[in-house]
Amino acid sequence: MEKLWAPWRIEYIARGDLDNDECFLCEKQKDTEHDDDNYVLYRGKFCYVLLNIYPYNNGHLMIAPYRHIGEFEKLIGDEFLEMMKLTKIATSAIEESMGAQGFNIGFNLGRVAGAGRADHIHLHIVPRWNGDTNFMPIIGETKVLSEALRGTYERLRPYFQNE
Ligand SMILES: [Zn+2]
After folding, report:
1. Strand boundaries in the chain, DSSP class E
2. How far, in Å, from the CA of 115 to the mean position of ligand 1?
3. Which structural domains are found in the chain, ordered by start?
4. Euclidean distance between CA atoms 129 and 160, whole angstroms
């Protein structure tokens, strides 16, 4: 179990103490003109989908409600429902276009659990492949990372646009 959830900690390590800054999840959703630059894949009625720019693995994306809420219990039915619907689209899109063999899907609730942004809840979807444990050192290079992000974005976006 510890090994399974350790990947989430990268968010905390990479982003550091960001709870004092403006919430990036609110910032990106308000910036409606630059979905491409912000790697926003889809805007639903209650939630939106974006790539994690500090991915644990290729295709790592996040689904967040528009509302700036940190507690799981505060999610309303419509948000839950849309989140699950978008999770379904995301996993089949990643499976189909990237050949993912498995997924880690989950929330980091609270700083102690590794949330980089504990005050705005978000669901992580991390695709997994056999032998992918060496991925981080490879994409540690910024250039490789941004190219990988752009490619992943172009690849996944069409799946959401059909919604
Ligand atoms: Zn927020």
Report:
1. 40-43, 47-51, 61-65, 102-107, 123-128
2. 13
3. 2-161 (3.30.428.10)
4. 22
C-alpha 132 to ligand 1 mean position (Å): 31
pLDDT tens by residue, 92-126: 999 999 999 999 999 989 888 878 788 999 999 99
pTM score of the predicted model: 0.84
Question: Which candidate in 60, 120, 122, 124 is catalytic?
Answer: 122
pLDDT single digits (tens) 47-70: 999 999 888 788 999 999 999 999
Q: How far is the CA of 77 from the centre of ligand 1 (A)?
A: 19
**Catalytic residue check, 122:** yes
Rounded distance from Cα 125 to ligand 1 centre (Å):
19
| Under 8 Å between Cβ of 8 and 108 | yes
